[in-house]
Amino acid sequence: MEALASNARDIFPAPPKAGLICDADDIFNRAEVTEAVVDILKQDGKENALRKELVGLLMARRKAGMTQIASAFRAKPRAARDMTRSYTWLTDCLVSCAFFAATRRFHPISTPTEAERIALLAVGGYGRGEMAPQSDVDLLFLTPYKITPWAESVIESMLYILWDLRLKVGHSSRTVKDCVRLGKEDFTIRTALLENRFLRGFHPLADKLDTRLEADLFKGTEREFIEAKLEERDARHKKQGQRYVVEPNVKEGKGGLRDLQSLFWIAKYVYHVSDVSELVAKGVLHQDELQQFVAAENFLWAVRGHLHLIAGRPMEQLTFDVQVEVADAMGYSDKGGRRAVEHFMQDYFRETTAVGDLTRILLTKLEAIHAKAEPLLERIFRRRPRVKPGYEITHNRLNVSDKDAFLANPLNLLRVFEEGLRTGMLIHPDAMRLVTANLDLINDDFRASKEAQRIFLDLLLKHGNPERALRRMNELGVLSAFIPEFEPIVAMMQFNMYHSYTVDEHTIQVISNYAEIEREELQDELPLSSDILQKGVNRKVLMAAMLLHDIGKGRDIDHSVLGAQISRKVAPRLGLNKADSETVEWLVRYHLLMSDMAQKRDIADPRTVRDFAKAVKTVDRLNLLTILTVCDIRGVGPNTWNNWKAVLIRALYRQTRLVLEDGMESMTRENRGTKAKKLLREELSDWPAKDLKKETGRHYEPYWQGLHITAHKVFAELLRNIPDDEVRIDLHPDVDRDATRVCFAMADHPGIFTRMCGALALVGANIVDGRTFTTKDGYATAAFWIQDAEDAPYEASRLPRLRTMIERTLAGEVVTTEAIKSRDVIKKRERAFNVPTTITFDNEGSEIYTLIEVDTRDRPGLLYDLTRTLAASNVYIASAVIATFGEQVVDTFYVKDMFGLKFHASGKQKTLEKRLRDAIKQGAERARS
Hints:
Layout: H1 8-11, H2 24-27, H3 30-41, H4 47-75, H5 80-106, E1 119-122, H6 124-128, E2 137-143, H7 149-164, E3 169-175, H8 176-185, H9 187-194, E4 197-201, H10 203-218, H11 222-240, H12 257-271, H13 278-281, H14 287-311, H15 320-329, H16 340-370, H17 376-381, E5 391-394, E6 397-400, H18 403-408, H19 412-423, H20 429-436, H21 444-448, H22 450-461, H23 466-476, H24 478-482, H25 503-518, H26 527-535, H27 539-548, H28 559-573, H29 578-589, H30 593-600, H31 606-616, H32 619-634, H33 643-662, H34 669-683, H35 689-697, H36 701-706, H37 709-719, E7 728-734, E8 739-747, H38 752-762, E9 766-774, E10 779-787, H39 799-810, H40 816-819, E11 838-842, E12 850-857, H41 862-872, E13 876-885, E14 888-896, H42 906-928
Parallel strand pairs: 2-3
Antiparallel strand pairs: 1-2, 1-4, 5-6, 7-8, 8-10, 9-10, 9-13, 11-12, 12-14, 13-14
Helix pairs in contact: 3-4, 4-5, 5-7, 5-14, 8-9, 8-10, 11-12, 12-16, 14-15, 14-16, 15-16, 19-22, 19-23, 23-25, 25-27, 25-32, 27-29, 27-32, 28-29, 30-33, 31-33, 32-33, 38-39, 38-41, 41-42
């Protein structure tokens, strides 16, 4: 007992020399705790009782320290390195105290033998001294030989204390020999050992480990370590997704903390550095690249720290709801028409891009050092591309042979990308460094140069893979330097569930889709677009429009309007003549028109086609807009384009082209109705003439032009001899539209459309389109296209149960209003989105209906609430067109009043709008509760 120390240095480590986020004593007052610890351990008593008292003391100090660090970090939200050092030091104090208690009180040994030595080391992230609020504590108990009973007891006592303190401890007990052996077998263990840090115990043993690791494990194995780390990185990226995934993993995602750590591990292994700053003196990084590394590391650690504090657990993924809270914690604010979270995520993606640049630089340096000589025969016979004068090949990458000569002509800042595409070679990082260091050469004279314009357009149009050059030019800042108007959208996140990429990456994806069509790689998937391109379009105009279509995003003005204004200035600077520039401006201004018409309007209504044709005016513009629309939708995300959208776009294109070439009379209801009836007669040729005449005569004109012949045939069968009290249903997979078609036939009565919407919502169906028609003899026919929760058609095996549930609901066995409440819930991660509600009335979009367009937040029971409200207001719903864009939905209803008239009176419109808004508000409150 007398041997217990009373000096804080004997129990606790000193605070780090580099700054903590607040005063060390505010985090952990070593003097006070030392006195209290000694008082506890001097008592007589069993280990369990003393340990319990000690843990109570340390737990209170741990909570107080954690609270103090968190409070100071919130006050200085960007001081990430101070935050990580503070959590590390607090943990060091707790672990050291546990070691002291275990070795000096619970299992003291006055004269230890050589075998009874132990060294306590921190490994992994804890060893590196980088800890977030919820990080694990990884420990290595190092012994000289096989573990002794004394060491076993010490380790056990220590772990009980740490577990009782609710630390997440990862631990191993090994000899020096074990560490070397296991490090050879497992790269994860080897990496953890690379960052070991001595904490307490017998220091010579830790020194011996470092000596043996360097001599017997690290030396001469640099190449295999690099390859292992790169394999780990590739596997991690494959699992996590690309850099621009909208809910990134801060630790494991592309450009995240693990990538930075991997860089440092490799540098430490190869160059024997203890700090990344030492890589400048070794010529691996330039000073500005070091600053880039430090800035990215600090930013990502700040994000991770706030993420842990907000979640209260070791959360690593920036989900939508948490993005908003992290942005607020880091001091971002709304400005320039954009939300704080969008500014935050733009910075996030810029930092992860910088990490990618640093990775490329370091790996190329290492490649130069560790590349094995190619076999002689391979070097002799392998064909290498011939590069133009001024360039050379360095380690199979395109490099600049004379920097001064290269910079003497600023146009070379573009030509290097052209040479890269021409030869198919990747550009060497040294050449990239040269470009980024001299972006100031791209000035107004450069941009006005005809030769610069030619080179840039050739990059886009000549070599067949413009996306490769654009992505690299974008990452290096060349694209923004050449087109300064592009800079604001670089790494700009669109805070919604619809877009999977940042705006600049989306733009490149759009152009990549176009290139794939041109290379004839998507003929089966995109037959219409492939056919249009094969017949020829103005490629220069189309490419410019794709490059500029979203350039107006991020401001508090319609991005299509602003984008058109910007295009008016930029297109001539790209070398386009006046007529082509005007076409580019038109395409940018109306790049959403075809998508909106196809997805938000009933394209079976001739007025829709007429209005669209009037806007487009020429077949040439129709062709250009169609390609732009298809590439734009496909560029939103990996699964955004589907057969449903393809069918709508093709139908609108086909009908509009017919009108532009043959006139509006080719689209009259009468003509289309006559054709549809003729097709039905052919399909039902085995029917008696009397029944066939009844079927073709019972429907109004909108029915014939609003549905496909397959639906006409189904409804004919459903309506044949139908009793007034029976509901008939047909469920059928519609493969062409990626949906399941549900057809209803029953006696007509008010609110029938609502009942069907409710029944479908109750079974969990996502309605993507729906329309209803009333027959002349008093029956209602309704067709819905539905998808399951995965936005896919229902499997055939699920259809019988689906039918039963729908029939029960329509029969009144289930009260829809009550039953739907349990389903009408918005997920937590989706609640951060702000989707304002807009309701518009349009009496020009259809000859016989008023269009009510409701643009609002999507949720499971929304369509039911809206149709129920309209039905209660004596509104007849002829059809509903549903367009979903992530968390946003646009429901367009084609309606008439109870007298069959349009809603012209503003008073009636305002009353209906108020009722619809009330229904949306009540449903939203229900969904959030």
